[in-house]
Design brief:
Number of strands: 0
Distance between the termini: 90 Å
CATH superfamily of one domain: Hypothetical protein, domain 2
Number of helices: 13
Shape: elongated
Strand content: under 5%
CATH topology of one domain: Endonuclease III, domain 1
Largest sheet: none
Helix content: 55-70%
Structural class: mainly alpha
Length: 249
């Protein structure tokens, strides 16, 4: 794993490549962002943004959403996928806010993750963007990008969060997460566009890709060798035809 100085240099370079990186979820307050982030699981931000205006018009706060019928909420979030689980989660989360926090979103990780449907990633999004508390959200994009570049070395989101926040000043955390997410969506996609990457000269994945005969982690091995060898494996010995017997006159 790279040193803290190297990690900061990577984030700085990616920040210049993606100026203005920010969450793409639309919200007006911490409650709306909390709901939208829960709905964004296995969905696109654009899809969530299409669903939330009608949801928040009908249920503008935690008290209203906590008292909603699940069937009604399901219809409003249907387009985001997994709508039954998501409707149940945001109703339960709203009930938790109403019962434990007077309907207000708490500004602490410990309190947020005790709410139904809220994990560390969701909590970090809300803390960093709506409540002014540094937080670095680790999603699948951050996992992929950070491990490829070499600024983190784990497939566990919480461990990657610890590694990145340990190398970066707290004031950088929220923006760093947004930057890595955007880079994962636009450049370091599952099939990476390495030639467009601002840090390809220090990227572990790119360096491994350039070594002859080396297959970097995360890249499927070529099937050429196996295909070439296949004919030998299935080659059959051709039997000689038996000589024909001559008929007696």
């Amino acid at each position: 794993m790279k040193s803290p100085d190297a990690v900061q240099a990577v984030i700085d370079a990616l920040g210049r490549q993606h100026p203005g990186a920010d969450t793409e979820l639309r919200y007006r307050n911490a409650f709306e962002l909390l709901v939208a982030t829960i709905l964004s699981a296995q969905s696109t931000d654009a899809g969530v943004n299409r669903a939330t205006p009608a949801l928040f018009e009908r249920y503008p706060d935690a008290a209203a959403l906590a008292a909603a019928a699940q069937e009604d909420v399901e219809q409003l979030v249907l387009s985001t996928g997994f709508y039954r689980q998501k409707a149940k989660a945001i109703i339960g989360m709203s009930a938790g806010l109403s019962e434990r926090h007077g309907g207000q979103v708490p500004a602490s990780m410990e309190a947020l993750v005790k709410l139904p449907g809220v994990g560390r990633k969701t909590a970090n999004v809300v803390l960093g963007h709506a409540l002014g508390v540094p937080g670095l959200a680790v999603d699948r994009h951050v996992l992929r990008v950070s491990n490829r570049i070499g600024i983190a070395t784990s497939d566990d989101p919480e461990r990657v969060e610890q590694q990145l926040t340990g190398a970066l000043p707290p004031a950088w955390w929220t923006k760093a997460g947004d930057t890595l997410i955007l880079h994962g969506r636009r450049v370091c996609t599952p099939k990476p566009q390495c030639e467009r990457c601002a840090v390809n000269d220090v990227c572990d994945f790119r360096r491994a890709s350039d070594r002859p005969g080396r297959v970097p982690a995360g890249r499927p091995r070529s099937t050429r060798a196996t295909s070439a060898a296949a004919p030998r494996a299935v080659r059959k010995t051709t039997k000689k035809a038996a000589p024909k017997r001559s008929r007696r006159p």
